[in-house]
From TrEMBL:
Residues 295-387 form the Reverse transcriptase domain. The keyword Coiled coil applies. Residues 100-134 form a coiled coil. This is Reverse transcriptase domain-containing protein. The keyword Heme does not apply. Keywords: Coiled coil. It comes from Hemibagrus guttatus.
Amino acid sequence: MVVCRMTLMVCKKKRSKIEIEKKTKWWKLKKEECCEEFRQKLRQALGGQVVLPDDWETTAEVIRETGRKVLGVSSGRRKEDKETWWWNEEVQDSIQRKRLAKKKWDMDRTEENRQEYKELQRRVKREVSKAKQKAYDELYTRLDTKEGEKDLYRLARQRDRDGKDVQQVRIIKDRDGRVLTSEESVQRRWKEYFEELMNEENEREKRLERVNSVEQKVDKIIKDEVRKALKRMKSGKAVGPDDIPVEVWKCLGEAAVEFLASLFNRVLESERMPEEWRRSVLVPIFKNKGDVQSWSNYRGIKLMSHTMKLWERVVEARLRKVVEICEQQYGFMPRKSTTDAIFALRILMEKYRDGQRELHCVFVDLEKVYNRVPREELWYCMRKSGVAENESREQVEENLERWRFALERRGMEVSRSKTEYMCVNEREGSGTVRLQGEEVKKVQEFKYSGSTVQSNGECGKEF
């Protein structure tokens, strides 16, 4: 018989690492000292100038670079959703000593090593209990603040997510119910699902009456409009792909207002917005009901540029001055919250109950309403309400189609090969027009009754 003592080193199963893009710590701008340092460093990066550069690309890059240097970036490690927010350095040191004592006892199982390990084990339990009690006491005192509410809600969400695959959707089912496990197949399925969801329209009667567009000069955006929109924007929201939150513009104050007003006016005049604004991050969020692996139980949340949202706020404020919204609309309306509608319903229920009368209620839910709104109906409603439009190629196409229909109805035919399109004072990338889906030939000059008309508005070819 052979007796021996062996120590086997068993390799732990490696957990798959989830790469997370490093983010700038913009939340530090809530501190006035960090905000002031950011303003000073940004001014130095601009060569001592107080005014921001005119073009978006230069300004955005300088802001991002300054933010990374002044505020720092996150580690990129995955944040574990465990209820260890009470953790402190004392507990960590005690647990480390306990682990070393355990290894020592495993190597040499003497009574002295065993007692040392047991004593450290009891000490860790006491320190964990003290740390938890201290953290809970601090939480209770902060419940009346915004930070305290966030802590409480975070704990509730962590407990609710336990056992659900909602931190990152690693597996999903396809149309036939088969489980997809590879990253490529999961991403491909999400792409198919959201493409169908965003481009689907319900069947409807396309009988929209002809409404003439309101053609008038659109006033320039003034700084006061930007200030009001900036004030309405909430802080602490997830940033889009451009990594510039609204906190940056709030920190920069009047310099930001002046830059944004100039930027928005250039977008209004050129009818083109920065390419960064077109990009977004689509995140599937579990609805907390149904099968976690079923794609239909997720809703998509788009993380977009905060600056583009600010531009949308300015446009929305102008639309609200023209468009009349019905009195029954609650939510997204000033001084008309959904809680007012709930209160009115409860009062009505009490009145009917006191009078011993029946009250019949029907709660109508529209299926995927935001994804299936017919865009034509929106344009129709805005034109009907008298919203002013800038001159656009779409109007040219509409007029061209009306002429084609009127002529062909009377036996005439528009020549596709000889019909030409010219844009005077063309902005970069303004495109062309279409006739029944076919592009009309685009020219820089056109000979009209012996006179050459040029797209630049000059008459040089006449001489």
